[in-house]
Structure to design on (179 residues):
């Protein structure tokens, strides 16, 4: 009996979650956006930032010694963005399968929080490298400060959303006990 109720609730959840055409279109659009972000970040890390680091050393030869430390920090930060994008994609799959309100979803949210925290700390490390080496180029400094601010804001937002997920999972479990 309990299994039948669970299956019925899952079917209702799927119908509510992606039953409408607009929701299906939103899921497809979000998957497209996630794929574009993933590919864009990958190409940026593979092509754009190495070229920019090379140009930085040509334009400012006195700052050539910070090329590799900053490039490594940036590439590691971009890897954390990739981790977060993959986790958001997995959470989207959980939503489509109507299993998003389960403890199983916590690991993806926790991974996003960890990736955001690490990326923000890497941005702070890049700022420390810039300050310690006196390689303070105004544009690079503003980009680094912006990355730290955005990383902090997004990570804190996900922490708040995780608290909402915990509450939703508890309510879903309570509802399951009532039924």
């Amino acid at each position: 009996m309990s299994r039948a109720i669970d299956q019925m609730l899952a079917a209702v959840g799927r119908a509510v979650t992606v039953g409408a055409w607009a929701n299906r279109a939103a899921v497809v659009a979000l998957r497209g956006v996630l794929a574009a972000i993933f590919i864009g970040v990958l190409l940026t890390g593979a092509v754009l930032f190495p070229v920019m680091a090379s140009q930085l050393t040509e334009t400012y030869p006195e700052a050539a010694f910070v090329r590799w430390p900053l490039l490594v920090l940036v590439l590691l930060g971009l890897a954390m963005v990739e981790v977060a994008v993959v986790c958001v994609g997995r959470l989207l799959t959980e939503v489509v399968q109507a299993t998003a309100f389960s403890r199983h979803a916590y690991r993806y949210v926790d991974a996003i929080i960890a990736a955001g925290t690490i990326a923000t700390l890497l941005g702070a490390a890049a700022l420390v490298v810039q300050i310690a080496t006196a390689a303070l180029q105004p544009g690079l400094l503003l980009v680094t400060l912006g990355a730290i601010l955005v990383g902090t804001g997004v990570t804190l937002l996900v922490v708040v959303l995780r608290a909402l997920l915990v509450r939703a999972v508890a309510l879903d479990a309570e509802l399951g006990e009532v039924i």
User: Anything to note?
Assistant: The chain has a mean pLDDT of 86.
